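Try this one yourself first.
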């Protein structure tokens, strides 16, 4: 069972607009058409069984639209595990966390750049507390983002403060703990009790370096992810397999850990 813990897709009516817009913002090319069907086709090509889809509410009002679409997709596409997304400025953020859990969604995606917050800002703490209390995991964008100036709003030191403050929060840090901030990630996050997902990193660092970082983290807390459509699922999977990791470690990282986290 291979599970990609970090993918993006959009409602069919939005995808045709969202993809060129985001391609332009990030100066990057998409590897799918951005629709759920496009993601499924990519999964078939790559041999990936399930994908976790991480929508991002860039406005508080987006919660409802994302939820409506997520309900639809999960009813028809059991291979796609839909997350919801709560905006930090949402006056109903805590109620929405409760509704997320009540409806059986497993977690939320939070993105400090797209949602304009600093990851260890205390205004976020009530939401973190509620997510933890309801057993929801949170997939955070961590490190820098190529579409934004490199402000330190989601860097490993700040992440460490959050996981130290909320040990019960199932914190998933993307991009090996902090995109293009891997020195700090090694120092503050690798080896700590948080989940670390690996997308968009393996082509940016020497394989030996990636391998050492991955092996230095608890084996039950490493997750395979691709950030599709922003990278190619088949290529990311091939890079993982080329790392020469022990077989049982690889099986856990490519699917076992994710399956456990998804229940
Ligand atoms: Zn992403």
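Now uncover the answer:
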């Amino acid at each position: 069972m291979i599970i990609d813990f970090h993918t993006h897709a959009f409602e069919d009516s939005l995808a045709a607009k969202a993809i060129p817009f985001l391609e332009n913002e990030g100066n990057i090319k998409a590897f799918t058409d951005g629709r759920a069907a496009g993601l499924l086709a990519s999964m078939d090509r790559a041999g990936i069984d399930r994908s976790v889809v991480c929508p991002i509410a860039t406005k508080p009002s987006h919660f409802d639209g994302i939820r409506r679409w997520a309900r639809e997709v999960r009813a028809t596409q059991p291979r796609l595990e839909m997350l919801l997304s709560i905006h930090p400025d949402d006056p109903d953020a805590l109620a929405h966390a409760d509704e997320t859990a009540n409806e059986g969604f497993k977690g939320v995606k939070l993105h400090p750049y797209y949602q304009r917050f600093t990851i260890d800002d205390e205004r976020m703490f009530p939401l973190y507390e509620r997510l933890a209390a309801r057993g929801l995991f949170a997939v955070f964008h961590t490190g820098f983002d190529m579409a934004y100036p490199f402000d330190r709003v989601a860097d490993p030191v700040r992440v460490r403060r959050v996981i130290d403050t909320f040990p019960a929060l199932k914190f998933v840090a993307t991009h090996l703990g902090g995109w293009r901030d891997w020195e700090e990630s090694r120092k503050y996050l690798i080896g700590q009790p948080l989940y670390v997902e690996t997308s968009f990193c393996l082509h940016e660092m020497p394989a030996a370096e990636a391998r050492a970082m991955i092996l230095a983290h608890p084996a039950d807390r490493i997750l395979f992810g691709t950030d599709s459509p922003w990278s190619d699922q088949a290529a990311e999977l091939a890079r993982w397999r080329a790392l020469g990791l022990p077989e049982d470690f690889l099986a856990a990282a490519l699917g076992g850990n994710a399956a456990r986290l998804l229940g």
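Discussion: The longest strand covers residues 3-7. The CA atoms of residues 14 and 237 lie 28 Å apart.
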